[in-house]
Amino acid sequence: MTDLLEAAGQFEVERSRRLIREIMESCESRVALRKRISAISTLVGDLWARGELSVAVEHFLSGLWKESLRADLAQMPEPREDAETVVLAGFPDEFHELGLLLLQAEFQHSGYRVINLGPALPWESLEQLMAKKTPRFVCLSVTRPALLAVHLPRFSELVARQVGTTFVVGGPGTTGMEQSLSSIGVLCWTTDMEIGLLSEEMKNGSDT
Ligand code: B12
Which CATH number fits domain 85-207: 3.40.50.280, 3.10.50.30, 3.30.450.40, 3.40.50.300? Predict the structure, then answer.
């Protein structure tokens, strides 16, 4: 991990890319990879918050992670024709996107068809998609509880209108917001939950 931060700190493109590849290949499962990336990102975030790592280094690293995760996704087999569809997106104004890419990989690996609409999706755009398709699941990511609180009224209206879709919200922004989410009929993903469990909970929730 320190090798990677050192290489990124010097903006060494090839070395950083190689170290990221090595980390990805050394993780024995996608869950392990998600935990590893989260641990590295937490360290990056803490160093940034203490003024010990520049925004440029953080952007450089995020860019390389995105590149490698997308390359990994491009290698994955297509889903079965009858696969369930999952829509992924970031809350409006939510620009963190690595969590979404990791989720995409895990869902695709579990056989889902994934439509990843990326970070900071306006509600109107999600509604436009939902007028054309009725996804079985919509999973939204949020990093800060304050952002979730601001958007909760509008989100709750949208959820109430969409019968037949199960909504899930995950990410660090769900901390302390579990009750508010469940009161509007949304499943809340806490950071210690495995995606396999979420998948089961999503299926159970949608059967009832
Ligand atoms: C990279 C980064 C950025 C990049 C993002 C680049 C990109 N394209 O993704 C940029 C520069 C955009 C950014 C901006 C900001 N950031 Co920032 N950022 C980070 C950093 C270093 C890493 C985030 C990351 O990618 N983590 C890795 C992923 C894999 O983890 P994750 O997002 O937590 O997701 C995991 C789970 O939560 C889950 N998950 C996530 N979403 C969902 C959804 C569902 C449905 C499910 C099931 C699961 C799930 O899956 C993931 C894997 O386990 C974090 C540090 C940290 N501790 O994470 C700070 C951090 C999140 N950022 C922070 C801040 C303050 C900001 C800014 C406000 C800074 C500023 N003043 O402008 C802005 C806000 C921008 C916005 N409006 O969203 C703070 C948030 C503090 C807080 N809780 O309030 C952190 C924690 C840094 C810190 N230590 O202070 N940031």
Answer: 3.40.50.280
